[in-house]
Amino acid sequence: MSKHFEEELQDLHSDLLKMDAFAEEAIARSVEALREQDARLAQAVIEHDARIDALELVLDERCLDLIARHQPMAKDLRFIATAMRLNSELERIADLAVDIAQRVLELSGSPLLKPLVDIPKLAVLAQTMVKTSIDSFIVKDSELAKKVILMDSEADRLKRLIQNELIQEYIVKDGSVAPRAVPLLLVARHLERICDHATNIAEDVIYLVKGEVVKHHPERISDVKTYADQPSAVNPPEYA
Predict the structure, then answer these.
(1) What is the C-alpha to C-alpha distance for residues 22 and 48, in angstroms, rounded to an integer?
(2) What secondary structure, in 3-state letters, does 181-221 show?
(3) In the prediction, which pLDDT does 111 show?
(4) What is the mean pLDDT of residues 106-112?
(5) To bridge 42 with a disulfide, which of 33, 153, 173, 183 should be the other Cys (CB 3.0-4.6 Å)?
(6) What is the mean pLDDT of residues 163-169?
(7) Is 114 left (phi over 0), alpha (psi -120 to 50) or beta?
(8) How far apart are CA 120 and CA 113, in angstroms?
């Protein structure tokens, strides 16, 4: 590999981490806006999304340019292909943070239907899965990536719990509360989709590190312990 090509790959890696920082910040700020019912913060999340969209386009163009000029093979090609997929996943995660911010605006001016209990739990899990999936990319750790994949079932469980409570305990009993319940239902859906995208990132990391496709093949991660046996999803281990 030429020194110039290696430097270009390092620059791509650095900008991809910048994209991740933007996406993680968007999640954190949208969740804070929901918790504090802060319409101004929610609007800031929405307005910042243009910068994330612009960076996505820059990274995509850079990846295509690297492929065209250097015609990489083997691990270098896998890295660039993975970078393109991660770039797309992170942009979609940021879009979902915008969706959450929009739900905050819909709820603005009305008291919350109920105290937020399980939605914050799902939000913490979503943030953890995104961070851990990117950590697995940084340190090229396929086992860490597999742990992210196993966390997704907990995200699905929390989303179902939130939906069942809001529908059965509130909307069914009093249809007039629907305008305050539906945005919360959608927030749960948005957060669960963030977890799905974090899972996709983890699957891409496994492909990058091992050249192994685990998407749609859960049996290929059977050597990892169950989610319940892993360190707490809300307090993941630190990785350099």
Answers:
(1) 9
(2) HHHHHHHHHHHHHHHHHHHHHHHHHHHHHHCCCCCCCHHHH
(3) 86
(4) 89
(5) 33
(6) 96
(7) beta
(8) 15
In this structure, what CATH number is given to the domain that contains residue 137?
Answer: 1.20.58.220
Q: How many domains does the chain have?
A: 1
If you compute the radius of gyration of the chain from its CA atoms, what whole number of angstroms results? 19
Q: Which residue has the tokens 């990274």?
A: 59
Q: Structure tokens of 86?
A: 């991660």
Task: Identify whether 240 is part of a domain.
Answer: no
Structure tokens at 179: 């305008």
Q: DSSP characters for the chain?
A: --HHHHHHHHHHHHHHHHHHHHHHHHHHHHHHHHHHT-HHHHHHHHHHHHHHHHHHHHHHHHHHHHHHHH---HHHHHHHHHHHHHHHHHHHHHHHHHHHHHHHHHHTTS--SS--SHHHHHHHHHHHHHHHHHHHHHHT-HHHHHHHHHHHHHHHHHHHHHHHHHIIIIITT-GGGHHHHHHHHHHHHHHHHHHHHHHHHHHHHHHHHH----TT-GGGGTTSPPGGGSSPTTSPPP--
- The residue among 228, 89, 209 whose CA lies nearest residue 151 is 228
**Mean pLDDT of the residues in the chain:** 89
pLDDT at 1: 63
Q: Is residue 51 part of a domain?
A: yes
pLDDT band, residue 238 (cuts 50/70/90) = very low
Residue 143 inside a domain? The answer is: yes
Range of the domain at 90: 3-229
**pTM assigned to the model:** 0.88
